[in-house]
Amino acid sequence: MKLSKLLILASFLSNPVVIASAKELVIERDVPTAIHQETGFSESVKLGNTLYISGIVSNAPTYDEQVKDIYGKIGKILKKHDLTFDNVFRETIYTSSMDELRQALNTRKSFYSPGVYPAASWVEVSRLYYASFKLEVEVTAYIPDSGEN
Length: 149
Prior knowledge:
This protein has a single domain (24-142), classed as CATH 3.30.1330.40. It is globular. The chain starts with a helix and ends in a 7-residue tail after the last strand. It contains 5 helices and 6 strands. A hairpin with a 2-residue loop joins strand 2 (44-47) and strand 3 (50-56). By secondary structure, the chain is α+β, with helices and mostly antiparallel strands.
């Protein structure tokens, strides 16, 4: 009897029940440029209270300049949605050089409020879409309800 209760509990925990609300979720996609249309991806997607920003890249000549450019672009996308880096709760960085990323961490951190950093994963890859891209950053941000702090 105890084993069957454990199996039922384990099944429930591994397959959570999702209860849909009466409110229908609308997916809003931002496809701002021809390159987004040609390659088939959205710059950002808003679903409910979550904003997903696709991997942002830069052609700036140095690693540090790419970091500044990428986070500047992310900041502009966040601002379009009345958000800041304080709303970012998840970040994934793909880099062709973990050593260069470590050297640029202070530049990256300067975009976040002190101590308000997202959960993050940093992955070294052999190459990004173009060889000139040294890193690609994607983030996920929380969109508070009206009146919510």
